[in-house]
């Protein structure tokens, strides 16, 4: 007879293979298992509500709104113009500029697909026009957009912190150095690929042109400084920082640049509500699935299997990263957090791993999943913009993803690269 833990996984996988949305698959598998094994159907409603009625999750719709508003206000366009003027004249300069722009926009958006759309619609035509090729242009933007869930503020960190009751502010701060390292490494790879393929830079602008583009973009460049600086200084919490981000984005759009009208605000609210509702729908049912899998004994069985296989920490970490890498090819990041964290947490505690460190490692791994088929949400966005096929984008992404994976290994071996800033924050002045 099939065990309860095996049945819930089997139902979820079968429903998922039919093309059903992930949130629905999680919900059906959970509710059926709870009913079939008589775990108490009455727990479904309070569990569903409890999963989304959490103060830290309020940050998600606010950050989504801020990202959309800044894009509509023309902030992305101004930043693209400045960074293009700054480094676009170098050999492969537009590719380097794309990485730098994606790194910065990650500190505004917090969502990979949103970043791919916001900067892709501007940069991909530039790159293609400069001879970079459709597939490489799409692959570069898709990979760089993954930095949005690594560099704070990040929706992924908010979900992770909420599930494990870990400081979201500490996760935000911990993501800064890894995000900057990834940005630097991707810039080097983009430069080397550009040299190999003979991609040239654009005409070098004058210092006056660079200065003008800087002045036009400086208020947009201040956005992450205000958000992260306020969190680091203890002026406001991550949730309050999200509200500050909304106010600042509306100030830029309505007052400074005047590219947003009050009618546009209604549209931005509708778009943000749509994105946020999808996230919350997955969060609600993924939380229910997590409760069902724990009740069914999946956590205990998995922990016993892993620790029976090996007690070598490095091997277990590599096993976790491999499983997450594979899962990221088929599932979205939110679902992966809820499905795998309850299983992994007892083992994380067994080896006394820092939860902040593991959260950053897990998130980088899931950023790779945003580019790898068949889910590859970032690649789907850039494929539509560029007209390149997903297979072609996947091929061009290989050197970039190898670089990301190399940084992931570096952070596994040297945890202080992740933990130095959070530890500094804990110690205070």
Structure write-up:
With 429 residues, the protein is mainly α. It has one domain (57-427). Helix content is 78%, strand content 0%. It contains 21 helices and no strands. The longest helix is centred in the middle third of the chain and has 34 residues, at 262-295. The chain is globular. It starts with a helix and ends with a helix. The model has no long low-confidence stretch (mean pLDDT 87).
Chart the SSEs and their pairings.
Blueprint: H1 4-17, H2 22-36, H3 44-52, H4 59-72, H5 75-87, H6 93-106, H7 112-129, H8 134-145, H9 155-164, H10 168-174, H11 176-197, H12 207-232, H13 238-256, H14 262-295, H15 298-309, H16 313-328, H17 333-350, H18 355-369, H19 377-386, H20 390-413, H21 416-427
Helix pairs in contact: 1-2, 1-14, 2-14, 3-14, 4-13, 4-14, 5-6, 5-12, 6-7, 6-8, 6-11, 7-8, 7-19, 8-19, 8-20, 9-17, 9-18, 10-21, 11-20, 12-13, 14-17, 15-17, 16-17, 16-18, 18-20
Counted up, domains total 1
Major β-sheet profile: none
Helicity range of the residues?
over 70%
Distance between the termini: 60 Å
Task: Offer a few descriptive terms.
429 residues, mainly alpha, 21 helices, 0% strand
Brief description of this entry?
By secondary structure, this protein is an all-alpha fold. It has helices at residues 4-17, 22-36, 44-52, 59-72, 75-87, 93-106, 112-129, 134-145, 155-164, 168-174, 176-197, 207-232, 238-256, 262-295, 298-309, 313-328, 333-350, 355-369, 377-386, 390-413, 416-427.
